[in-house]
Structures are given as C-alpha cells and as structure tokens.
# Entry
Amino acid sequence: MMTESARKEARDILHLTEQNTLKALEIIERQLFVLYSRAQVLVSLAGVVITVTGFSGRTIAGTSLPAQMFIIGGLATVLVCVIWVYMKVMRINWSTTGLQEDPVETLVILIKRRNIKTRAYLVGGYVLFFGLALYCISVSMMLLSPMG
# Structure
C-alpha cells in the first residue's frame, strides 16, 4: 500500500517536472529540508526547557514531592524527544545513496524515507508536548504553593 502510494507520488512528481529527474529530486530534498528545519525547532524548544530547568528547577522541585515528580518526568520526556528526533529525523541520509537506474524507483526510495521521517517528527512533537505539559504542571504547582 505505502509502496503504491509512493510510486504514484513519484510518477506525479516526474510528470510535474516534465520528466526532469534532477528537478524531481530537488522537490523531495526541499521537503526533507523542511522536516529537518522543523526538527531543529523541536530540539531548540527542548533546549530552552532544559536551560530553564537549570535555573529554576531547584525552586520548582522544592515546592512538593508531586512537583518534583512532574518536573523530573517533564525533563526526562523532553530529553527522550530530543534523542528520538535526532536519531529518527535529523540523522543524515544523503539523497544520492540508493540511486536507481529508474528515476521512479529512486523517488520511491526518497519518498518512503521522507514519510518515515515525517511520522517520526510527529511522534517527537507529541512527546515534546507531553513533556512540556508535565513541566507546566510542575511550574503551576510552584506558583500555587502557599510557600512558593
């Protein structure tokens, strides 16, 4: 199913580019670049969370045991997101590896790679947002604490 869908997309891209394989490859490369750029945003956002935790983590964790659990859980989840996104989305696979004689087959390989990276990006985003939610709960607990 996925192969047929990728094959149809490959043929459509070649039709769009008037059978120009180089232009077709450039379309897929731009899509991969968009994914990479968005993955960088996720990693940067995670970096902000880790940095803020370095400055205020002790204060937040000092609020209560549940706040400690939420901030540690949030931080761990954000770290899992960074590792996942780096390994699954940002890992470098050159477009020229796996070139085939048939341009459709080459495009199918790249489209499958793009689709796998897209799904991994979505998973990474969901994991990051879950970690941010845990982190925000811990900050809310600190702000609501009568001692905080």
